[in-house]
Amino acid sequence: LLPVLALGLLSAIAFWPEIDGQGDGGRVSFRRTIEPRAEALRVVNPRYRGIDDESRPYTITAAIGQQVGAEEVLDLTEPRGDIVLNDGAWVFVRADTGRYDKPAHRLLLEGNVTIYHDNGTMLRTAQALVLLDEGAAEGDTPVAAQGGFGTLTSEGFRLTERGAVVVFTGNARAVLESRP
Fold first, then answer.
1. pLDDT of res. 18
2. Dist. CA 44–CA 42, nearest whole Å
């Protein structure tokens, strides 16, 4: 008697929607919807490797890269970039945020921009525009540089000729150290 009672209880539970009059509760319907499109492409730890016009390899990485729309422009969080120069020297750039325009080969860096050269020179500024194809960089915000030569502060900088020439613009002050 107990198994028959259990079977009757399970049957009542299974068929309750039919008894209650909710017959279309199990019906499935399909509707056409507009195909969803991503508003933005977001990539964690993006890495872009390229070669400049002098066949020097460079790499651009970031913690997060986000492409808004169809343009090939990436908004970067914690961007990093490095390049090996023709003489074997290594240059490393980092910032809080950045914007990489791939077609124009331009990297705009903002917030705690630091440029390191493996000879011990370090340059700090709030904003810098790196022109990858031209091998140039520039900034119009206050800059501080230090290295084996001493320290230097100015209102801006221009890096040209693939890093061979650095011009400090505006009101500049240098404290030079002598080498024994």
1. 65
2. 7
